[in-house]
Amino acid sequence: MSEGVRLHVEREVAWITLTNPARLNAMTRAMWRRLRELVLGLQDHPGLRCVVLQGEGGHFCAGGDISEYPSFRFDEASLRHFHEVEVWGALSALLDCDLPLLACIEGACMGAGVELASTCDLRLAAAGARFGAPIARLGFPMAPRELALVRGAAGELSTRQMLLEAAVLDAPTLLQRGFLTRVLPEPELRHDVEQTLTRLCELAPQTARLHKQTLRALGAAVPESLLASAYAYADSAEHREGVTAFLDKRRPRF
Which domains does the chain have, with CATH numbers? Predict the structure, then answer.
């Protein structure tokens, strides 16, 4: 199956599935754009009570599809467009959605996967799920809005470990640190998701929307001064070396 984002609506629940199985559901540019389109269409969908975000084939999302990176990442304008329009367009659509969002996390949850999970209200994970954002190995930083999102959801300690140490953290650790709602043995995860959806759908839908709106209003914005120079590294040697080394399957020389 080719990469994409699928939507399946079943009664009061919208199921969004990331599918790029050859790359553990890594996000392509087209997937970011499609995800935004689908989520915007759900906001006023009649009868919906909640949304589930999941990945295909035992993984949530392994990050961005690095095979696309040389085509746009080394030009500042195109890099800015990617992060501020395509990536943030999808993430902000999820953040602005008034329906409760539930992440069902299995396997790899890296980089873009952590960002996507961070937009969700409830995060249920299989015990074997792994979390990280090892982009220091690729020679570029997490974009400011995306970093603020992850820091707010995953916390200071986990964010610094994932970004500065390129640490991969396990599900029990992130449960203990407050990022995950629950961690289940893999065979029990889907059953727990279904039970959670049943509980959500029994509650007052207008109240849920009002709570989401209030929580969103309490969030802090990223300063424009930080965004002004955020992508000036686009043509740097370090950035090129990190991405090129990954694609060449060799250790980067920084």
Answer: 4-187 (3.90.226.10)
State CA 36 to chain mean position distance: 12
One digit per residue, the tens of pLDDT, for the chain of length 254 reads 578 999 999 989 999 999 999 999 999 999 999 999 999 999 888 889 999 999 999 999 999 999 999 999 999 999 999 999 999 999 999 999 999 999 999 999 999 999 999 999 999 999 999 999 999 999 999 999 999 999 999 999 999 999 999 999 999 999 999 999 999 999 999 999 999 999 999 999 999 999 999 888 887 678 888 888 899 999 999 999 999 999 999 999 98
Identity of residue 152: G
End-to-end CA distance of the chain: 37
Q: CA 73, CA 153: separation in Å to the nearest integer?
A: 26
CB 35 within 8 A of CB 53: no
Which one, of 253, 223, 251, lies nearest residue 145 by Cα? 223
Distance between CA atoms of 158 and 140, rounded to whole angstroms? 18
User: What pTM does this model have?
Assistant: 0.94
